[in-house]
Structures are given as structure tokens and as C-alpha cells.
Amino acid sequence: MRPRHYGNPPSRQNDWKTIKSLVPYLMEFRGRVVLALVFLALAKVANVSVPLVLKEIVDALSLTNATLALPVILLLTYGALRLANSTFGELRDAVFAKVTQRSIRRVALRVFEHLHNLSLRFHLERQTGGMSRDIERGTAGIRFLLNFMLFNILPTILEIGFVAAILLVKYDPWFCIVTLATLVIYVVFTLVVTEWRMIFRRNMNEMDSKANTRAIDSLLNYETVKYFNNEGFEAHRYDETLQSWEKAAVRNQTSLSLLNTGQGAVIAAGVTILMLMAGQGVVRGTMSIGDLVLVNAFLIQLYMPLHFLGFVYREIRHSLADMERMFGLLEAHTEVSDAAGAAELKVSGGAIRFEHVGFSYETRRQILQDVSFEIPAGHKVAVVGASGAGKSTLSRILFRFYDATAGHILIDGQDIRSVTQKSLRRAIGIVPQDTVLFNDTIYYNIAYGRPDATREEIIEAARAAHIDQFVESLPDKYDTMVGERGLKLSGGEKQRVAIARTLLKNPPILVFDEATSALDSRTEKAIQKELQEIATNHTTLVIAHRLSTIMDADQILVMDHGHIVERGTHNELLTRNGAYAHMWALQQQEEEVERLEAVSL
Fold first, then answer.
1. Model-level pTM greater than 0.90?
2. Residues 160 and 192 in one domain
3. Which among 175, 178, 181, 186 is positioned nearest to 292, based on CA atoms?
4. What is the residue range of 323's domain?
5. Mean pLDDT throughout 400-406?
6. CA–CA distance, 401 with 118 (Å, rounded to integer)
């Protein structure tokens, strides 16, 4: 399976779009940018002046009385220019450092926030390992792009202009012509070959992201790999991607060697021609030894940044390729968004009403069909049904992980699509069937329900969820690390942590999506008693598998293939002898079998 791509395919237009997207971050510190450019210009003026002073020193020392009167002032000026060049360069870097780091921080934060604003559909389809590598390379690309575009390409072009002007004014025009011709050939060769090489870099990036995705996915599913003894299979899948990466990397390096060889040949040819011309000028007496040294020094000064310019251009193109995928994440469509002028949800009692709600994850598969029901404020409604009946989808669209494709959902008379998502989710607490914890402490995971809660409130929530005794029995107590995705805890322990943090949040509306499914019978009964007490003061939607846990519900909805086929209290539904009564009878039989097996053991 190929890694998921975001945004548009790479193109020159996308490159300019990426560069333009960084301009606002530069404008935030326009004063620092201008000052850095001033230091840059001063550094280049000092650098170009060095060969001019060196020429005067050589010519002065060539005189017969040079040993008696050394050009001390020229030598001091030469040293001062060298110092000025390095000093202004360091000042430039120091002034611009805040611009670079703030830009990286802002872009990374923007991507992070955007990812949290994307719908559940995006996150179900994402490949976490590859996406994290895209962001990592993209932020590194920003640092390189800002520093080298401003402080290498621009100053190199500036220095080439200075040198060409000096050669044109002081010497035969052919010096300037040969110099510029060499530069033009060098730049054209670099551009053409670099563009050809970009496909290898993009292949490297793609294979790198794919390999990282497979590695992260395999490690996150460590236990599953062990269950099926598939370490060799996982290593083979990982190595397949690494082989593709290796081929792309070898092609990338060999093409780089070709580029470097060609660049060196162009520069060597230009330097040889210019030195032959300068040497001939000295022989003819039209140029001094100092002039020969000047031309040679200029060529050396140009050769280094020009050679580096080729490297910088290559790396900038690589950085743009790296940034394409990260900025592509920002172009991912935000499927669920606040309506223009969305108001805050005002909860008075927390009454919920579904009006003819329909929903489908894709057009060919309808999940909910014309679902209508109401949960009065402070009441408890339970939803039961076979797997795939659409029970959990109710909680997802109530929480606006997705928007209903038909009908309306109202809380206290307010359509949830007309209020802000933050205020809606602030009013709802959910304990999901599959609890995933942060790789942090038990305390942190409970406190996540309300980060500003006091320690006493957090411990009280743990007591209410009947997890405090377990936590106190641990060596590190509430400071115990739960591991990646909470894998150091059992399913029941994770579920109780999830219940505790929802209780700590204390919202007016509670949703329990098979919240006690991972608990043993004894713990389940203890927590159910607590949940019953909590539900008396909250509007509660319970999605249940075990019917014995929802006997006290004010109303029970029975769902089948996206429809509500029965509704009523526990006793009313048993009296009707329909789908619910059939499910009840089956579960009673299963529980009886389990009880007999337990007694026999």
C-alpha cells in the first residue's frame, strides 16, 4: 500500500506557493530581517574589498625598497576587512536566529492545530509514522530555506555582481565576459541536473515515510506480532521498503556525484582560461603581479560560494520537496467545521433530540436511517442492538466527529451544527469502548478530564470510578506510568481511568459507549451503581451490550441496520416479546452457562 499523499502533486507553482507561505512569518520581524540584510551587505563589501587590498600589498612589496618600508597600513586594513567579514556574518546570524526559530515554531504549531481540527475520517485513514516523518523533515526544510535563500543565494549573487563590475572597470572586458559565461554555464548545468535528480529525492522521501509508517505500526502492535509469531514477516515487510529506499538513495548519491563532477569541470575550465589571460597580461606588462593575485583571489572567492551555491540550490529544492508534504497537510479538508457566526452552546438541562437523522460514511453504505428519539433533561436512554446496527455512530455524530447527512440533532433546542464545536464538546463527556491513554502517569490521564482540577478532585474522581485502591497498591501510586496507549494497564484498569477522567470533567451530558464492557462482573456492578447515581443528575446516553446494565434506563432503543425497531422501558420491551426480549433471553442463557462453569471450577 502506498503512503497517503496530501495536497497537490509537486510542481514549480507549488514551490513558489510554499516560499510565499513563509513571507508572513518574516514580516513579523521585518526590523530584524532588514538589519540582517544590512549586516549581510557589509560582510560582502568587506569580502570583495580583501582582494583589492591584497593587490596593493603585493604591488607595494614588489618595489625594491619594500623591505625598508612595509605597507603596514595596508596589512592592518587587510586584517580589519577579514575581521569585518566574519563579524558581520556572525551578527547577521545572531539577529536572524529569532526569525528562523519563531517561523519553525509557528508553522509546526499551525500544522499541529490543523491536524486536531481535521475529522475523525482523516485520522482513521492516516499513517502516523509517515506523517510524523513528513512534519519532521518539513520543519527542518523551513530552517534551511530561510537561512540559505537569504544568506547564501542572495549574497552570492551580490558578490558576483561586485566582482564582475570590478573586472569590467579595471581590466580587459574579456575577463568579465569569461567570468559571467562560466557562471551562466555553471548555473544552467546545475539547474538542469538538479531538476532531473529531484525524482530520486522524492522517491527517497516516500520510501522513508513508508518505512517509518511500517515500523511504527508494527511496534504499536507488538503483542499482535508476538501472538502470531510474525517477527520475520514484519522484518521482511520493513526490509522491502528499505530496499526501495536504498535504491533511491544510491541513485540520489550517484547523480549527486555526477553533478559535482560537472560543476567542478565548468569552474576549472573558467579558472584556467582566466589565469592564462592574466598570466599573458603579466608577460606583456599590461598587468602587474598584484593584478594576477587579484584575479586569482577573486576567482577563489567566487569559486567557493559558487560551488556552495550549487549545493544550496540542490538543498533548497530538497527542502521544498520535504516541505511540500508538510504543507500538504494544511490543505487537507476540514470536514467538520464551525458555521459562520456559530454561537456558544447554552445548556440549561441538556435535553437531546434526534430528528429524522440519517448518516453514511460513504454513499454506498447507509449507517443510520431516519432515526428519531429524545432524551429529556436528566433522563437516561440506552441503545442496544447487534454489532453494526449503528449504535456507536450515534455518539460520534452527537460529538460531531462527523456531521449527520440528514436530519437534525438538537441540545436544549439548539442545532449542534449552529454552535461551536468547543462549547458542544465541553458539554459532553464520553467513555468510549476502546480506551486509549497517553503514555504518561495515571494522575496525568485522570487529570486530562479537567487539567486545572485540584489533586483532591482528581483522587475523588478515582474513588468514584473504583480505581483508587488499585492505584494506592502500586509502588509509584498515581505517578505510575501507563505505557504506550496505556498497555501497562489491563483493559478494566484502563476503562476505570477513562471513567474517572470523564467524572472529573463533570459535564451535563454523559455518553457511555459500552463503558463497562472490559470489566469483570464484580467491578462492573460496583461501577454501574456509581454510574446510576451520577446519571440521576445528568442527561445520559448509554450504548450497551450487556442488557442487565441498562434495566433502569428511562427508555431503551433497539436498533437494527440503522433503524430503531423497538423502544420502551425494560419491562415494556419484555412484555412485547420482540427483538429485545429475544436478546434478553439469549444473554440470560449465556450468563447461566457462565455461572455454572464458575461453580464447577
1. no
2. yes
3. 175
4. 14-330
5. 85
6. 9
In angstroms, what CA-CA distances link 66 with 17, 72, 73? 59, 11, 13
3-state secondary structure of 510: strand
Domain membership of residue 448 (yes or no) is: no
Return the SS3 of 577. Answer: coil
Task: Give the type of residue at 311.
Answer: F
> Does residue 20 share a domain with residue 106?
yes
Q: Whole-angstrom Cα distance, residue 220 to residue 590?
A: 34
Distances (CA, A) of 55 to 102, 112, 142, 295, 591: 44, 56, 41, 9, 100
Q: Is 190 helix (H, G, I), strand (E, B) or coil?
A: helix
User: What's the CATH code of the domain at 592?
Assistant: 3.40.50.300
Is residue 488 in some structural domain?
no
pLDDT tens string 453-490: 899 898 988 888 888 888 888 888 888 888 766 677 77
Instruction: Count how many Cα atoms sit within 13 Å of the Cα of residue 189 in the half-sphere of its side chain.
Output: 23
Q: How many domains does the chain have?
A: 2
The answer on pLDDT for 214 being more than 70 is yes
Quick one: pLDDT at residue 3? 40
Could you tell me if 313 and 399 lie in one domain? no
The answer to whether 218 and 238 have CB atoms below 8 angstroms apart is yes
Tell me if 152 is assigned to some domain: yes
- Find the CATH number of the domain harbouring 259: 1.20.1560.10
Rounded to the nearest 10°, the torsion over CA 437, 438, 443, 444 is -140
Residue 477 placed within a domain: no
